[in-house]
Amino acid sequence: MSKFVIIKILGGIIVKSTGIVRKVDELGRVVIPIELRRNLNIDVKDALEIFIEGEHIILKKYAPACIFCGQAKDVEVFKGKNICPACLQDLKS
C-alpha cells in the first residue's frame, strides 16, 4: 500500500500532511506520535514553542536564542538572559 503525501503552502511555508489524526483530550492535550517525535528529534521533557498562523497551530522544538541577534548556536545565560558568545563579547568590551 503506497502512502500519499499532501503538500500545501501555508503562509509561505510548505507543509506536508502525515495522514495522522489525533483527538484533543479533556485537558486540551494532543499526543504527538512517536514516529514524528523520532523524526524531529523531540525527546521527553523537550520544550515546544507554539505559534498561531491564521487558523493553524504550529509547534516547533524550542531552541533558546540570543536576545540581541537571534542566533541559537552556543547560547549562554548571562544575568538571566540568553546571549551568544559574539554579543557577550560586545557587552564586555
Describe what this molecule looks like in 3D.
15% of the residues lie in helices and 28% in strands. By secondary structure, the protein is of the alpha+beta class. The protein contains two helices and six strands. The chain is elongated, with a radius of gyration of 18 Å. It has a two-stranded antiparallel ribbon. It has a two-stranded antiparallel ribbon with strand order 3-4. The longest helix is centred in the last third of the chain and has 8 residues. It has a domain of 40 residues: Pemi-like Protein 1, Chain: D, CATH 2.10.260.10. The model has no long low-confidence stretch (mean pLDDT 84).
Share of residues in strands: 25-35%
N-end to C-end Cα span: 62 Å
* Topology pattern, helix = H, strand = E: EEHEEEEH
Largest sheet: 2 strands, antiparallel
Described by the principal axes of the CA atoms, the overall outline is elongated
CATH class of the domain at 7-46: Mainly Beta
CATH third-tier fold name of the domain at 7-46? Pemi-like Protein 1, Chain: D
Radius of gyration: 18 Å
Task: Give average pLDDT, whole number.
Answer: 84
Low-confidence stretches: none
Helix/strand/pairing category: alpha+beta
SS elements, strand count: 6
Report the total helices. 2
Give the helix proportion (percent range).
10-25%
What order do the strands of the largest sheet run in, or round the barrel if closed? 1-2
Name the CATH architecture of the domain at 7-46.
Ribbon
